[in-house]
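Regression test case RT-17, inverse folding.

Input:
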């Protein structure tokens, strides 16, 4: 532990607390505490005598107690280390070769017919893809070329799902909401606004290179928008089940599923075909 005389000697040489602390191997706030016997974040409660202690600067010392945070995961050195570990780790490479983000199971099993159940299952598949997208490191977190290709693949899967999901809702769900609920017009209009916002982000994401910071920012934005939209629709589904007869919801659910059957598949990034 440095002594008070050591800190004060460095201050007398013209160093500030940041540099003095660096030379002595302690944080700037600790160097201030050693020199003055006072905490760096106590400036508003100092007495007149304390304000004139040796080593007391004229300006505020709050910055000494709360220095700017440094995130080491954003440095080039950290990214290079992560890439090296991923390339040299054989189990990781083998797992990557077997990786496939496509949701397992039928999009709409034969025992799922009711409209809100069909759409909720589809929501779960999309949010599952978003979890995978978030788990894969992007360019700003040291992602490898393979990681970035996988992120693009997941985005393509999300786009594939939404390209058939949203039109089906616009054709079958929201007209039913408008007709069945007293506030249906307002709810449908808000939902369509959210959908338009999310599709705009998704379009921008698909037009952006995965090795850019912008791609990572858009991916985070899309996740937030989709989660907010799903929560909004879940609340609408509760009211729809209370106000629209079961047989009507069964019929609409079957119509939604019918529109999905012709949706094209997305090729695997490594050329795999199941």
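Golden output:
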């Amino acid at each position: 532990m440095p002594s008070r005389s050591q800190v004060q000697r460095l201050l007398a040489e013209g160093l500030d607390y940041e540099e003095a602390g660096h030379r002595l191997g302690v944080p700037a706030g600790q160097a201030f505490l050693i020199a003055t016997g006072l905490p760096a974040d106590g400036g508003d409660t100092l007495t007149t005598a304390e304000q004139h202690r040796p080593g007391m600067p004229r300006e505020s010392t709050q910055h000494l107690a709360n220095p700017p945070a440094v995130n080491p995961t954003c440095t080039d050195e950290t990214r290079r280390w992560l890439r090296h570990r991923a390339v040299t780790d054989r189990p990781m490479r083998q797992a990557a070769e077997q990786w496939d983000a496509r949701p397992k199971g039928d999009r709409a099993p034969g025992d799922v017919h009711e409209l809100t159940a069909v759409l909720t299952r589809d929501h779960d598949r999309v949010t599952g893809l978003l979890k995978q997208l978030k788990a894969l490191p992007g360019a700003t977190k040291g992602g490898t070329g393979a990681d970035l290709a996988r992120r693009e693949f997941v985005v393509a899967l999300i786009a594939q799902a939404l390209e058939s999901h949203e039109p089906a809702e616009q054709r079958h769900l929201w007209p039913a909401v408008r007709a069945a609920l007293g506030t249906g017009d307002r709810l449908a209009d808000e939902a369509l606004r959210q959908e338009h916002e999310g599709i705009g982000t998704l379009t921008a994401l698909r037009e952006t290179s995965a090795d850019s910071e912008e791609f990572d920012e858009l991916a985070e934005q899309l996740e937030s928008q989709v989660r907010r939209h799903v929560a909004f629709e879940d609340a609408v589904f509760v009211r729809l089940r209370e106000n629209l007869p079961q047989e009507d919801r069964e019929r609409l659910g079957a119509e939604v599923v019918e529109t999905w059957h012709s949706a094209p598949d997305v090729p695997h990034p490594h050329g795999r075909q199941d």
